[in-house]
Amino acid sequence: MNDRTRRLARTAGGTSFVLFCLVLVFDYADQGLLSPFVNPLLQDFFRATANVVPLGWVTFTFTLLSAASTIAAGLLADRRSRVRLCVAGGLVYGTFSALTALAPHGTAGFVFFFVTRALNGLGVGLVVPAVFSLVGDLVAPARRATAFGYMSVAMLAGRFGGFAVAGAFDGDWRRAYLLVGAINILLAVGLLAVREPRRGGREDELREAILEGAEYRFRLSPGDIRLLRAARSNFWLVLNFVDVFPGSIILFLIFKYMKDIHNLEAPAVNFTILVVALSGAAGAVVFGRVGDLGSRKDRRAKVFTALLCNCLPIVFMVLFILSDVRVPAGATLAKSLATPGMGALVATIAAAMFINQGVNPNWYGTLTDINLPEHRAAMISLASVMDMIGSAIGPLIGSYIASAWGLKAAMGSVLFFWVVNILFWLPVLAHVRADLARVHETLAARADEMKRSLPGHAL
């Protein structure tokens, strides 16, 4: 491959990566629209805003169907074209989001909304396993955690982007869903121009054979369950839905906690949330890069980095919970931030999330590294479903603790779950070296087999 060809390949790969990140941004923006529109939706459908149970069922059904399609997508992505799977998912959730704008007023409108959002969930679930599998074959192993860090930023930006779109439309939920749906349809069409990266094409062991013209033909099969179980780290990485508890509890309670404990009004809380989000995004990229750089010397570096990102936030979270700063009643945003101790309060929760968000890219990086190319989407889909379960259970646990023992105790439970989460990473640390060696040996043997299959190769 000459220099010009390499440059074109890098450019095409970079363009594809940006497009994949944009798909994640607007996928998550679509999911983030419901919460800001709760009251307008209830008013439109039921002429009242007191009973939120109907929209709770919308969220439950959406999540259930999304989880089912995520598992299906993981299995399909390891056997079929992942780009086509992303296109199908984008067209499905984009179309049903756009159709949501046609919902009539009243209870008939709610039924229409329920159906379109439920079917939207089927499309949303198709995307994440396929996108992460594609990036695994698009980015070299030495930069995967960094790439996954940017993808974590894309998902986070999507969530807050959904809030921003909702705010811009000021209660006009139909136009908001129409806009986001249209953008997702356009992105899905744009994916048709993406060339699917060769499966296994960026693995060090396979690169030479693939450059010579060999093709990696291995695909997920029912008999592979033995290989997946042989990677002992898989069990602990996939099972660890506790990892989601701390962040989900913090985000669920932060508005009420900051108001009841520190007397902050909504503008100051929104500012705090923005700072926390930006800090988390920066942390995902920084610690993703740390994991990649460390892996050059120690292949367990991503696991060590994830452990560090679980341990250090505990210190800052303790300082956050112990703070007794209280803002004067009716204080503006400027006066709230000028209150003695307020800057330190925001800094501690921002520092905690900055460090903790470094777990995600190293988790995805480790899960990708310890599995063969044809198994990655399936494992990511299972892990994603476990994350959905964690995202549902975490706020529920936080709400029960807050009701029984108060908001301080609920925030304190975050410390407990961070400690428990560390226990899930210790077995990974013990097994990951052997799991990485197993993948290396398998790929090296397959590379030899692929070369022997080439025409004219000496037997």
CATH architecture of the largest domain: Up-down Bundle
Instruction: Name the CATH superfamily assignment of the largest domain.
Output: MFS general substrate transporter like domains
User: Given the helix and strand composition, which structural class is it?
Assistant: mainly alpha
Given this structure, which CATH class of the largest domain is correct?
Mainly Alpha
Throw out a few tags for this protein.
459 residues, disordered N terminus, Growth Hormone, Chain: A, 19 helices, globular, 0% strand, mainly alpha
Characterize the structure shown.
This protein has 459 residues and is an all-alpha fold. The chain is 77% helix and 0% strand. The relative contact order is 0.13. The protein is built from 19 helices and no strands. α4 (82-100) packs antiparallel against α8, α13 runs antiparallel to α14 and α14 (301-322) runs antiparallel to α17. It has 2 domains: 1-196, Growth Hormone, Chain: A; 198-459, Growth Hormone, Chain: A, CATH 1.20.1250.20.
